[in-house]
């Protein structure tokens, strides 16, 4: 039995197969319509979510499976004091696979250790968000054609942003990657064991980038509101600033956005963050099939 806690749980070759499967799903949806018939996905969300939870649910429904779960810790027995370890033991009796999001770093790992079914980390505190990373990698690979020899600028809350932490881990395994971290001093990336450059100004950096990965300031992880208010609008990408960027640069954002990308950027062909959310469904379908051991068996189910 296999879990997904961190994007590094898959080798680069395994990721390639996963993305090939996701692209096949993208172009041949009906072929997969019954691939998970009779299977159930549990979504256990102890933290707010729109995209991650609903795209997991859409993914399982697209595969002909069913979904159950909770979207708020207060509506689960966590509010009565039940541990994650006990909850997952119970969920293992009801479902075949589980996606879990939790504000505490490492909670999905504890769940995996006590689980009878595959567990997927759907975000744990400021730590990791591996399925967002799979989404990001699939988006880049599908739209740029490759995942190596790219200059990527990651901009915004690099301290608390778990999507950034996971994405850097994953991309650092590809050859010729150049990382430029764009953040205010207070939101700098925690030390990384890879070569990188750090800058504060976005405008000066834009002309060098193949990919710009924007993130919101993570209000819920701040200790005080004043710091958040001071930093929240530090970066605002708008149409005017985008004039400095290469014509084929891609703008990604895990979403939700707050103010960091102005809506006048949305109709620029470089803005791919809504497409990115669609890739999130394909890659989660591919992941569910893979972790359930059903990849390659979809046609036998029809
Ligand atoms: C991200 C998250 O939850 O970390 N959202 C998402 O899953 N797409 C990013 C964020 O909340 O800023």
CATH superfamily of the largest domain: Aspartate/ornithine carbamoyltransferase
Which regions contain 5 or more consecutive residues with pLDDT less than 50? Answer: none
For the secondary structure, the number of strands is 9
Examine the coordinates and then state which fold CATH places here, giving the name of the CATH topology of the largest domain. Answer: Rossmann fold
In round numbers, the mean pLDDT is 96
Shape descriptor? globular
Enumerate the distinct ligands: N-carbamoyl-L-aspartate
Spatial ordering of strands, largest sheet: 7-6-5-8-9
User: The biggest beta sheet, please?
Assistant: 5 strands, parallel
- Taking all Cα atoms into account, the compactness measure Rg is 19 Å
Beta-strand content: 5-15%
Estimated structural class: alpha/beta
* Helix residue percentage: 25-40%
The CATH class label of the largest domain is Alpha Beta
Distance between the termini: 25 Å
CATH architecture label name of the largest domain: 3-Layer(aba) Sandwich
């Amino acid at each position: 039995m296999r879990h997904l806690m961190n994007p590094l749980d898959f080798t680069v070759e395994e990721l390639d197969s996963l993305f090939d499967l996701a692209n096949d799903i993208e172009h041949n949806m009906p072929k997969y319509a019954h691939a998970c018939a009779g299977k159930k996905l549990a979504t256990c969300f102890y933290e707010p979510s729109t995209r991650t939870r609903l795209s997991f649910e859409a993914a399982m429904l697209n595969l002909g499976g069913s979904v159950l779960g909770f979207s708020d810790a207060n509506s689960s027995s966590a509010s009565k004091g039940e541990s994650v370890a006990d909850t997952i033991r119970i969920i293992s009796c009801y479902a075949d696979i589980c996606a879990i999001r939790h504000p505490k770093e490492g909670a999905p790992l504890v769940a995996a250790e006590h689980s009878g079914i595959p567990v997927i980390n759907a975000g744990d505190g400021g730590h990791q968000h591996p399925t967002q990373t799979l989404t990001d990698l699939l988006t880049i690979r599908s739209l740029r054609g490759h995942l190596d020899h790219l200059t990527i600028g990651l901009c915004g809350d690099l301290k608390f942003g778990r999507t950034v932490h996971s994405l850097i881990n994953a991309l650092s395994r590809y050859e010729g990657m150049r990382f430029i971290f764009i953040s205010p001093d207070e939101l700098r990336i925690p030390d990384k064991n890879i070569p990188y450059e750090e800058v504060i100004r976005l405008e000066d950096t834009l002309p060098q980038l193949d990919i710009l990965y924007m993130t919101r300031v993570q209000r819920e992880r701040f200790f005080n509101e004043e710091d958040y208010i001071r930093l929240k609008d530090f970066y605002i990408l708008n149409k005017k600033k985008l004039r400095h960027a290469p014509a084929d640069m891609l703008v990604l954002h895990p979403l939700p956005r707050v103010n960091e990308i102005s809506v006048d950027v949305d109709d620029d062909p470089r803005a791919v963050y809504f497409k990115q959310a669609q890739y999130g469904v394909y890659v989660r379908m591919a992941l569910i099939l893979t972790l359930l051991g059903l990849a390659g068996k979809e046609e036998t189910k029809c």
